Predict the 3D structure of the following.
Amino acid sequence: MICVHKLNKKKTDRYFLNAEFIQIVESTPDTMISLSTGEKYLVAESIEEVIEKVLEYKRLIQSRFNPVARRIDED
């Protein structure tokens, strides 16, 4: 899951989205995230920030299930 903030709301107003369901991230000019389920979310983060959050999520998942990566992280 990644945490993104609702557009034009307080920083405490946020969404937790399953990064595996993200299909499209576009600038309209606001950042819109479209999920494979058909839902769309306007968020305060830029496209670059959303991509970085997804990459960090994928790195975390990969390191938890990859024994070689876990050994390197532990050293």
